[in-house]
Amino acid sequence: MRIRNTLALAALLCVMIDPALGAEPPAPSVQTLLESSLSGDPSKQVIVSAAVFPPGTSTGRHIHPGDEYATVLEGELEIQVDGQPVQRIKAGESYHNARDVVHETRSVGKVAARLISTFVIDKGRPLMEPVTDPAE
């Protein structure tokens, strides 16, 4: 009991000394740059966005109701698509996620990963839909 109390006190002191130790890591941020209807298909929309993934951050498992085309401008990402090996994407490289493919994007470099993504999705649907782990 005494050891457990000592460990709890040590953890509390660490958080009091450096509040960042107890804080959640920052989440990726996304800014919409352009939103437009797709020419010739009013049921689709195109969204161009800029995203910043601080080191260690992740999107969590999710799908898009359409295709995603992205280029990493800075940093490094890992893309885990269900049923496929992990892809490592570095600055200057691009990737594609197909419609309704479950995937997760994680920043793995020492600097924030910055990317530009173009989505061609079903109009009226959210850009990203979370997917829960089947074990949960």
Please, could you describe this protein's structure?
The protein has a single domain, classed as Jelly Rolls. The chain is built from one helix and ten strands, in the order αββββββββββ. It is globular. Mean pLDDT is 86; it is low at 1-19. The protein has a five-stranded antiparallel sheet, with no helix packed on it. A three-stranded antiparallel sheet has the order 6-5-8, with no helix packed on it. It has one helix at 2-17, and strands spanning 29-38, 41-53, 62-63, 66-74, 76-81, 87-90, 94-97, 103-107, 113-122, 129-130. The two termini are 32 Å apart. By secondary structure, it is mainly β.
In short:
The protein has 136 residues and is mainly beta. Helix content is 12%, strand content 48%.
Strand content: over 45%
CATH topology: Jelly Rolls
Please identify which CATH superfamily we are dealing with: Jelly Rolls
| Total of DSSP H or I helical runs spanning 4+ residues | 1
Number of domains: 1
Major pleated sheet: 5 strands, antiparallel
Trace the largest sheet across and list its strands: 1-2-9-4-7
CATH architecture annotation: Sandwich
Low-confidence stretches: 1-19
Estimate the mean pLDDT confidence.
86
